[in-house]
Amino acid sequence: MKLLAREALVKTGDVDHAAWNYDGLLGFVARRRFHMALALMPPEPVETLLEIGYGSGVFMPELAAHTHRLVGADVHRHAGDVERALCAAGVSANLVTAPAELLPFPNESFDVVVVISAFEFVSDPVLAADEISRVLRPRGRAIVVTPGATPVLDLALRVLSGADPRKDFGRRREAVIPALCSRLRLERIIAFPPLVWPKMYRALQLGKP
């Protein structure tokens, strides 16, 4: 799996923790999100792929290998800086500043939409799910990785990283899966860790209803 190099990362905001991917045990856990997403990707490269909440673009070098046209949307204002960092790494991507609830793309624009640990920051997850459905092509696929919400996991994250999930997410984590399943058709779900509870992450593969 190819990620953007740590030294190339652009810090795009207070909740942009892309550097965690390179830090010991925390990095191992953080990278599992990407492996889960890749397990749900189509076997062959698609024509168009959108990553919502691309942040610093850390996952885009890998996503670029799965599509002929890579696009990103995020609410931060550093699209140009991230594009230049990606270009220097040999990755071509068209990045825009836009919320998940109002994507600036025509209907049925993308074969795949990827969202990694970003949907829990969306203020209106149902509207964002509607937008994903709108921009997906008829046989398209949405892949969403979202964290669990339990006191045990929150404590573990505070110990490992110093971050406070309740402060970052509020109660939005609990709304992610119901919102997605209310607007898209759930096709597959995988979890990490796979055999124990509580689950740190779930990855959903969804299609148009």
Going by CATH, the architecture would be: 3-Layer(aba) Sandwich
Provide the CATH superfamily: Vaccinia Virus protein VP39
The backbone outline, from C-alpha atoms, is globular
By CATH, the topology is Rossmann fold
Instruction: Average the pLDDT over all residues and give the rounded result.
Output: 90
The low-confidence runs, each spanning 5 or more residues with pLDDT under 50, are none
Number of domains: 1
> Reading side by side through the largest sheet, how are the strands ordered?
3-2-1-4-5-7-6
The main sheet comes to: 7 strands, mixed
Structural class of the helix and strand makeup? Answer: alpha/beta
Assign a percent range to the helix content: 25-40%
Helical segment count: 7
Q: What's the number of extended β-strand segments?
A: 7
Per CATH, the class reads Alpha Beta
The fraction of residues in strands falls at 25-35%
User: How far apart lie the N and C ends?
Assistant: 31 Å
Helix and strand succession?
Answer: HEHEHEEHEHHHEE
What attributes does this structure have?
single chain, 209 residues, alpha/beta, Rossmann fold, seven-stranded mixed sheet, 7 strands, 25% strand, globular
Structural account:
The protein has 209 residues and is α/β, with parallel strands linked by helices. 33% of the residues lie in helices and 25% in strands. It starts with 23 loop residues before the first helix and ends with a strand. The model has no long low-confidence stretch (mean pLDDT 90).
